[in-house]
Amino acid sequence: MKMVSLDGNRKARVVKTLHESVRQHIEKRNRVYATKANKGRKHVVFQPDDWVWVHMRKERFLTHRKSKLQPQGDWPFQILERINDNAYKVDLPGEYGVSATFNISDLTLFDVGDDSKSNPFEEREDDADQPNTKRNHATTHWRCQLDQSQELGQRSL
């Protein structure tokens, strides 16, 4: 004959219900936290045969990124395979000497129809035609000073 304590069974049920309610509370708080943490994020999913720019981090591309002044990206590469929503295999030449699998944070979609401004890593022209920023305002002021000094120099001749 098996001896079972009714008091022990009742305690076990109480502990199980307590664990279940704590687990549900934790899951609910995790959903709320994830919603707040992901607010404003774009969900980007690349498909095989899409073209992307690869962000060349110094830690990963030691031979190609020796200084901060070198380009941070390279020519567009084609997506070969989607491993999951955060990881993709890219058609990366062997000369780079790194794994061809990248996190989505290191990839930017390349739009074949746009001009070079679609490359966020490419060096650009000066900002002379951009709206007034502090830098452009200072440059404009400096150019005016230079023009005035040149005019004074020509008048004295």
CATH class of the domain at 51-118: Mainly Beta
User: What is the rounded Rg?
Assistant: 30 Å
Main pleated sheet: 5 strands, antiparallel
What sequence of helices (H) and strands (E) makes up the elements?
A: HEEEEEH
Low-confidence stretches: 132-142
Label the overall shape. elongated
- The overall average pLDDT, rounded, is 75
| Residues in helix, % | 25-40%
CATH topology-level name of the domain at 51-118: SH3 type barrels
Spatial order of the strands forming the largest sheet: 4-3-2-1-5
Given the helix and strand composition, which structural class is it?
Answer: alpha+beta
Compute the separation of the termini in Å.
123 Å
| DSSP strand tally | 5
Q: From the 3D coordinates, which CATH architecture of the domain at 51-118 would you assign?
A: Roll
Summary keywords:
157 residues; alpha+beta; SH3 type barrels; five-stranded antiparallel beta sheet; 2 helices; elongated
What topology does this entry show?
Elements (H helix, E strand, L loop, with lengths): L5 H32 L13 E4 L22 E8 L2 E4 L10 E3 L3 E3 L24 H23 L1
Q: Would you summarize the structure shown here?
A:
The protein is of the alpha+beta class.
Any overview of this molecule?
This protein has a domain of 68 residues: SH3 type barrels. By secondary structure, the protein is α+β, with helices and mostly antiparallel strands. The chain is built from 2 helices and 5 strands, in the order H-E-E-E-E-E-H. A hairpin with a 2-residue loop joins strand 2 and strand 3. Strands 4-3-2-1-5 form a 5-stranded antiparallel β-sheet, with no helix packed on it.
